[in-house]
């Protein structure tokens, strides 16, 4: 018997398929074109907005919608061309099987009224495939009146629009609303208007969303659509919300907010953020009240803390809108007047963090636990009232965490807040393992090293080192206060930008102390501009000798004339020296006209330069002559050196200024 031969190349084909990973493609089965398949597709494409009741539960002429489609599709298969499928066919079925409570069914035109041919022509173009809606839109823009039948027809067409599907459909819907508003058709046909109000709401909501994508908010949209939004929003309440002042709270218009947000989808979308603010403010007020109750106790024990927490939770539950808050959100709790930003999942957690932060702050104020870096400077001291005694049981964990933080910071060699942050960040898990509320301490340090800390330190600097109308510091006192801050351990804990800002301000004060002109770059920060503005109060005139108290503040005791400052003081000083000869003047008397040159007019500056040159010349001619009065050598030398330093600095500054314009 002969052995059958193997197919040539079979091994080659098998090995190639294994090596290349290729797979034999299996042909896709052809889609069935049966009547059942066509019915399923027609329902999905042309009746997707209809309910199951309308498709399979409503009988017209003995057939449901599905049965009628099956009959017609089968007839078309058996006798091609016997049924004319298309837009009109499907629209007829939609109208026939539509729920009787649907708006399209309830909108019934008066058959006794005539419809203008041009309106029918425009509507025909709008219903073609593809539709040309511009003719109908232009008709609406110029129309001056509509009868009931015409208005119903326009509303029926509007109901077929999908404003979110295309900009053309959105503009067409807005054109209808603008016409309704312009001709006050909602007043002429109130029944028909009430039927389509939800559609108007849909169109206006989409109109707002389309501009919100470009960054425009509710105020801009309401002002630019003032003709149409009254169709769905309560007018009086909405205008009240629009007129709310910058300093007014949303709580003051809570009633109006509720009316607007409950009126429509548009109102809810426009003002939900404000309604949430009202709820958040109510929650915040309740939580702050609980914190005050806690700190008002004479002693805070674990049981007392739990009682306050329980009472606070009951108060929060009484706020009906609490459930409207987002599940995960950022909140701010207070630590000794310092905002601590944390993330919470519910109001109960927010209350817990707030109470623990208040407890921590009370313990730190009473020095029951170690202070955090720079806390001594940045947090306000007590008003002298007795602090609540916090149970040591509640302070064990906070004390351990802060001692560890202090040890890590002291062991490092960081000179900036950023360096300290990095050190603590590495050990974050250790802190949280010791105390889950250590996040409060870490949040305080992060805020201290950021913009909040810089702002706080700058405000502190302005208060302590920069004179003002109510705090007339001497230059020496201001510089000493400034130096103490610059050299403090507190500044080493702050961010680099804060350190640089304070250093620049200190340099400005030191320059003034040396008699140099006070100046600033136009592009300087707001803080440096405030420092520069405050330097005008170094220029003081009382008509006599200036006397400062031990803290460096001008003493006004016994003064009969008002104290002049800034430009007024410099002008008064100028009157004192303007009529004197050079031999009666000293460089010390002229120094204010160098430092505060900006308060002189052009003519006075020229005269001041001339007088200064004459005084310098007179001083040079006397140089080298023996003193007629034998003063104590050390005392006279010291006084001379001090005066010579300020005078020489002023002269050098004047000479340097003139050299700028010399050939």
Would you mind describing this structure in some detail?
With 663 residues, the protein is mostly helical. Among the domains are: 104-232, no CATH class; 326-446, no CATH class; 450-538, no CATH class; 539-618, no CATH class. The protein has helices at residues 10-20, 35-46, 52-57, 65-78, 87-97, 103-106, 117-127, 134-142, 148-159, 167-183, 185-188, 190-195, 197-212, 218-224, 235-242, 254-261, 265-295, 302-317, 347-365, 375-378, 392-411, 417-426, 428-434, 438-449, 451-465, 475-486, 489-492, 496-513, 526-534, 566-578, 587-595, 602-622, 633-659; strands at 299-300, 329-335, 338-344, 389-390, 540-541, 564-565. A hairpin with a 2-residue loop joins strand 2 and strand 3 (338-344). Helix 28 runs parallel beside helix 29. The longest helix is centred in the middle third of the chain and has 31 residues, at 265-295. It is elongated and about 130 Å long. Residues 626-644 and 657-663 have low confidence and may be disordered.
């Amino acid at each position: 018997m002969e052995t059958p031969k193997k197919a040539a190349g079979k091994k080659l084909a098998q090995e190639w398929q294994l090596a290349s990973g290729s797979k034999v493609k299996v042909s896709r089965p052809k889609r069935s074109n049966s009547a059942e398949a066509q019915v399923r597709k027609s329902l999905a494409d042309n009746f997707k907005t209809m309910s199951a009741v309308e498709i399979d539960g409503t009988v017209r002429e003995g057939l449901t919608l599905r049965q009628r489609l099956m009959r017609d599709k089968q007839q078309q298969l058996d006798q091609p061309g016997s049924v004319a499928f298309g837009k009109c066919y499907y629209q007829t079925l939609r109208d026939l099987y539509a729920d009787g409570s649907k708006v399209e069914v309830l909108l019934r035109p008066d058959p006794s009224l005539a419809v203008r041919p041009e309106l029918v022509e425009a509507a025909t173009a709008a219903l073609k495939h593809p539709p040309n809606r511009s003719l109908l839109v232009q008709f609406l823009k110029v129309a001056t009146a509509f009868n009931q039948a015409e208005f119903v027809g326009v509303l029926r067409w509007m109901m077929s629009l999908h404003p979110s599907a295309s900009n053309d459909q959105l503009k067409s819907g807005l054109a209808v609303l603008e016409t309704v508003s312009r001709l006050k058709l909602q007043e002429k046909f109130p029944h028909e208007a009430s039927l389509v109000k939800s559609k108007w709401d849909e169109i206006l909501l989409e109109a707002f969303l389309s501009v919100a994508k470009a960054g425009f908010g509710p105020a801009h949209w309401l002002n630019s659509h003032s003709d149409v939004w009254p169709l769905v929003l309560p007018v009086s309440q909405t205008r009240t919300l629009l007129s709310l002042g910058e300093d007014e709270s949303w709580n003051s218009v809570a009633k109006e907010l509720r009316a607007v947000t409950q009126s429509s989808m548009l109102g809810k979308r426009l003002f939900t953020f404000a309604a949430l603010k009202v709820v958040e403010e109510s929650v915040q007020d309740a939580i702050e009240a609980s914190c005050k109750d806690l700190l008002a106790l004479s002693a805070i024990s674990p049981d007392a803390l739990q009682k306050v927490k329980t009472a606070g939770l009951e108060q929060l539950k009484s706020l009906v809108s609490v459930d409207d808050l987002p599940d995960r959100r950022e909140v701010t709790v207070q630590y000794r007047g310092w905002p601590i930003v944390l993330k919470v999942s519910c109001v109960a957690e927010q209350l817990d963090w707030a109470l623990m932060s208040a407890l921590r702050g009370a313990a730190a104020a009473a020095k029951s636990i170690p202070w955090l870096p720079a806390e001594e400077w940045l947090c306000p001291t007590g008003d002298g009232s007795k602090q609540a005694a916090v149970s040591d049981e509640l302070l064990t964990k906070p004390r351990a965490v802060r001692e560890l933080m202090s040890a890590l910071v002291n062991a490092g060699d960081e000179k900036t807040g950023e360096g300290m942050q990095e050190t603590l960040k590495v050990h974050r898990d250790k802190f949280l393992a010791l105390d889950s509320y250590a996040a409060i301490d870490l949040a305080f340090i992060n805020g201290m090293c950021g913009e909040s800390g810089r702002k706080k330190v700058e405000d502190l600097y302005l208060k302590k080192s920069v004179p003002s109308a109510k705090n007339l510091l001497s230059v020496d006192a201001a510089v000493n206060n400034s130096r103490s801050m610059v050299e403090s351990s507190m500044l080493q804990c702050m961010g680099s930008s804060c350190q640089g800002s304070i250093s620049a301000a200190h340099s400005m004060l030191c320059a003034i102390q040396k008699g140099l002109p006070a100046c600033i770059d136009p592009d300087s920060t707001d803080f440096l501009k405030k420092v520069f503005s405050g330097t005008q109060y170094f220029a003081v005139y009382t008509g006599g000798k200036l006397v400062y108290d031990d803290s460096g503040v001008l003493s006004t005791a016994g003064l009969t004339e008002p104290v002049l400052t800034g430009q007024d003081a410099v002008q008064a000083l100028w009157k004192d020296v303007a009529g004197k000869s050079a031999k009666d003047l000293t460089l010390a008397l002229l120094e204010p006209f160098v430092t505060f040159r900006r308060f002189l007019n052009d003519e006075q500056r020229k005269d001041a330069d001339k007088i200064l040159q004459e005084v310098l010349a007179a001083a040079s001619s006397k140089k080298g002559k023996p003193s007629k009065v034998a003063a104590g050598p050390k005392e006279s030398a010291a006084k001379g050196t001090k005066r010579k330093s300020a005078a020489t600095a002023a002269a050098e500054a004047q000479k340097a200024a003139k050299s700028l314009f010399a050939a």
